[in-house]
Design goal:
- The protein is α+β, with helices and mostly antiparallel strands.
- Among the domains are: 3-269, 7-stranded beta/alpha barrel (Alpha-Beta Barrel); 494-723, Golgi alpha-mannosidase II, domain 4 (Beta-galactosidase, Chain A, domain 5); 755-830, no CATH class.
- It is built from 12 helices and 44 strands.
- The strands form 10 sheets. The chain has a 9-stranded antiparallel β-sheet with strand order 23-24-25-26-35-32-31-28-29. It has a 6-stranded antiparallel β-sheet with strand order 22-21-27-34-33-30, with no helix packed on it. A 5-stranded mixed β-sheet has the order 4-5-7-6-10.
- A hairpin with a 3-residue loop joins strand 17 and strand 18.
Length: 830
């Protein structure tokens, strides 16, 4: 006998065509309605996820919350999903996806003594190939989802094993009807289709998801009566009001008799416009993910040394980051007012993280020897800087130091800005080389007061070093024993550092890059193209074929202006403006290229001024040699996937295009949408669609309707050769060292030191923070290589083996001190 499991649900977007206040309060109304309906229909069961909605009900309607608890205890209310909110699972980092399940687990266990084991993605827009690894690491045994719909991606069966790159797998189920709910009049047809699918695939158990949804809703009296009538008319079918845990238990039992097929890879793509919509949200959100990771690891490290902490601020920041990964916020598919408010919440998270870092570094600086050289006469002392490396491996690169050299401008050097004698000293007290660079301000430019310098540094892992910058008459010159070529600008329109060369010429269509004398990019170099894009914020909401590829190419921008900003020896900088001015346009992209001494990469700071409608702006990165179909490896949450030309696709922090000897690496801190076509990688920078728009609308129509992402944007990217360490470059780009000027004190800690480390480097920390009671550390990491690793974590001088970690697997450990004598690592599952 076939059993049809009725899965009543009421999908609720807390932010979409409404703001979060309306969405969260609708959660109260929906749950009240369901509970009242349960009183009327004793067989009715219901599923509900998203701990944030439960938390809101608990705070604002305790009576309804108590009724929910009673329904859970009675087995009629199934708590599913396990996340704080239903996040996007293509664009959100692996660390934050895992944090969702951890936050949800802690909440549901504390409030209901229940830990959900079935994940539920009612409406997320496709799923990363690494999601099974994340789900398994989070303790999930099952995964129910709807997108992509069957017409967008065929699967071997509605029920299947989904396997991650580490070999872990979860039992997955996609409703054959394509979405999570139903309309009021379609219950009988929905049950008919569910039955037919079960028969076609030989399923003994099939799930029929039903209930009104999007703005809450859920089952109605008519739906329940239609179900009862259908059941009477089909006595050969067992119809049960069920939940996801009960249904997946039945699937697992059925699997013992007939093994479900196994699927490996991505579950995507759909609603591809969301990979690029709302650059303003995406840029701020990516920064908040990195800020949270850096602030938590710094807070944990310094707390272990000094006892200082600001955990309450981090808790609020973490919840804000989780909430804004929601699948209608981060993908940019909500209304303007709602996205503006969510941007403010992301700003609050960033503010809290900066505050925690400020407090932690000041607490550390109070213990470290930050003294500066003694000076004679009526001269100011140097300024001390505490520099923190947030990474668990040593950092080698450059930092910038800027501060006032005296309490007032130095009038004796008026007009002699470039000859004011400066000293920069490192943690050993020795003079170190530096390069004078322009300050952030432009006040009395030729009168020295604040000075800014670029300094090469070597920083210990999860550690600090002290540097000083001062005005010293008769300042000595450091002895530079490096054999590498300096970074220079030999002629206007060219910079080089002995490894890379960047050239640009006014009137051309691109910027050329060479590495070791060979072109890194082909064709006309790095260029900009504009395409017609009348589609809404989702792209084609019905996955129209013409929405999956770029529209008509409208413009190819030209190099309009060039200027050399710096010429070594530590860094050479060239500013290039590309624009559509030659075609009468009013948009431009400023690219500031930087080449550092001894750095095998090109760093680019981008500032876009965008004044277009119904258009898409793409960066064009041609492969150095023309060939056949372009292929690339994309970093995605918890995995790396290899892709061919397939329209617009989601990506993460880095992409490796082409092949060894004929390819390059692209790393960014903001971009998520990419296309492989015509011998080039084409990242989408911005698309100026209408907010929450359904139908295509040409640029000239309804000009009073606001479009997403007009105005100015800032982001960064890095270009390296095919073998460049993309993951390391991405981490350094998102989380550069922290530099903080601090009072000079003779502390009892050395001027350079390390609090922790993780080796080998391919094992990447996903999160490092204190336990809630502050007594231990919580460490989560992933092996990013295809071979077994034996990671060792160093903490306060102790080497702590973590045990074996499978290729691509995620591990979690509690690092605790036993009787004040030894540190140990205990695996901590979810």
């Amino acid at each position: 006998m076939i059993t049809v499991h009725l899965i009543a649900n009421a999908h609720l977007d807390p932010v979409w065509l409404w703001d979060s206040r309306e969405g969260l309060n609708e959660g109260i109304s929906t749950c009240r309605t369901i509970l009242n309906l349960m009183d009327e229909f004793p067989d009715l069961t219901f599923i509900r996820g998203e701990a944030a909605i439960y938390d809101h009900i608990e705070q604002h309607d305790p009576e309804t919350f108590a009724r929910i608890r009673q329904a859970v205890e009675a087995g009629r209310w199934d708590i599913v999903g396990g996340t704080w909110i239903q996040p996007d699972t293509n664009l959100t980092s692996a660390a934050i996806l895992l944090r969702h399940f951890e936050r949800g687990r802690d909440y549901f266990q504390a409030k209901f003594n229940h830990i959900p084991r079935i994940a539920w993605a009612a409406d997320s827009f496709g799923h990363s190939a690494g999601l099974p690894t994340i789900l398994a690491a989070a303790g999930m045994t099952g995964f129910a989802f709807t997108r992509p719909f069957p017409k967008e991606q065929k699967l071997p069966s509605p029920a299947f094993w989904w396997e991650g790159p580490d070999g872990s797998r979860v039992l997955a189920y996609r409703p054959p009807l394509g979405w999570y709910g139903c309309e009021r009049a379609e219950m009988a047809r929905r049950l008919d289709d569910t039955l037919k699918t079960a028969q076609d695939h030989g399923l003994a158990h099939a799930a029929c998801f039903y209930g009104l949804g999007n703005h809450g809703g859920g089952p109605t009296r008519r739906l329940l009566r239609d179900i009862a009538e259908w059941s009477v008319n089909h006595p050969e079918i067992k119809v049960v009001h069920s939940g996801l845990h009960r249904f997946f238990a039945a699937l697992a039992e059925e699997n013992e008799r007939s093994e479900w097929p196994t699927y490996r890879g991505e579950l995507g793509y759909c609603l591809r416009g969301c990979y690029a919509s709302a650059l303003r949200i995406k840029t701020a959100y990516r920064a908040s993910e990195a800020a949270l990771a850096r602030a938590e690891s710094l807070d944990a490290s310094v707390h272990g040394l000094t006892g200082a902490s600001a955990a309450s601020q981090l808790h609020e920041a973490a919840d804000a980051v989780l909430f804004n990964s929601f699948h209608d916020i981060l993908p940019g598919s909500s209304i303007e007012r709602a996205l503006d408010e969510q941007l403010q919440q992301i700003g609050l998270a960033l503010h809290h993280c900066r505050g925690v870092e400020f407090q932690a570094l000041n607490a550390l600086a109070g213990r470290v020897d930050t003294s500066v050289p003694h000076v004679e006469g009526d001269f100011p002392t140097a300024v001390a800087f505490l520099v923190w490396n947030p990474h668990p491996q040593p950092y080698s690169g450059h930092i910038e130091l800027e501060n006032c050299l005296d309490a007032r401008p130095i009038f004796s050097y008026d007009g002699k800005y470039d000859v004011l004698p400066l000293e920069v000293r490192g943690p050993s007290g020795k003079l170190i080389p530096f390069q004078r660079i322009r300050t952030e301000h432009d006040f009395l430019r030729n009168l020295p007061w604040r000075m800014r310098v670029l300094v090469p540094v070597e920083l210990p892992p999860l550690g600090w070093s002290v540097y000083s910058l001062g005005w010293v008459e008769g300042a000595g010159q450091p002895v530079d024993q490096r054999s590498s070529a300096p970074a220079l600008a030999p002629v206007e329109g060219c910079i080089a550092n002995g490894k890379f060369k960047v050239e640009a010429q006014v009137g051309t269509k691109g910027v050329h890059l060479w590495r070791d004398g060979q072109p890194l990019l082909g064709g006309e170099g790095m260029g900009i193209e504009v395409y017609d894009d009348p589609w809404g914020s989702w792209g084609g909401l019905s996955e129209e074929p013409e929405s999956l590829l770029p529209g008509k190419k409208l413009q190819t921008w030209q190099v309009e202006k060039i200027s050399t900003l710096e010429s070594g020896p530590e860094r050479a900088v060239m500013w290039v403006r590309l624009s559509n001015a030659h075609e009468g346009g009013a948009s431009w992209l400023d690219l500031t290229f930087s080449l550092y001494r001894e750095r095998d990469a090109v760093d680019v700071a981008a500032r876009l001024r965008w004044n277009e409608r119904a258009k898409r702006l793409k960066l064009v990165l041609p492969l150095p040699k023309p060939g056949g179909e372009v292929q690339a490896d994309f970093e995605v949450p918890a995995a790396v996937v290899h892709r061919h030309e397939n329209g617009e696709v989601p990506g993460g922090r880095w992409v490796r295009a082409g092949e060894s000897g004929c390819g390059f690496s692209f790393i960014s801190d903001a971009l998520y949408s990419f296309e492989l076509r015509e011998g080039a990688l084409r990242p989408t920078i911005v698309r100026s669609t209408r907010y929450a728009a359904y139908s295509p609308l040409p640029a000239e129509e309804e000009p009073w309707v606001p479009a997403l992402d007009g105005g100015e944007f800032k982001f960064h990217f890095i270009l390296g050769d095919y073998s460049a360490p993309g993951d390391q470059l991405a981490r350094h780009l998102e989380m550069p060292p922290l530099v903080q000027s601090v009072p000079a004190v003779p502390g009892n800690l050395p001027r350079s030191g390390s609090l922790g480390a993780l080796f080998p480097a391919p094992v990447r920390i996903l999160s490092l923070r204190k336990s809630p009671d502050g007594s231990s550390l919580l460490l989560r990491a992933q092996n990013t290589e295809d071979r077994l690793s034996q990671p060792i974590f160093t903490w306060q001088g102790a080497e702590i083996p973590l045990g074996p970690l499978r290729p691509f697997a995620i591990g979690a450990w509690t690092i605790a001190n036993i009787d004040g004598k030894a540190w140990i690592a205990r695996p901590s599952g979810m």
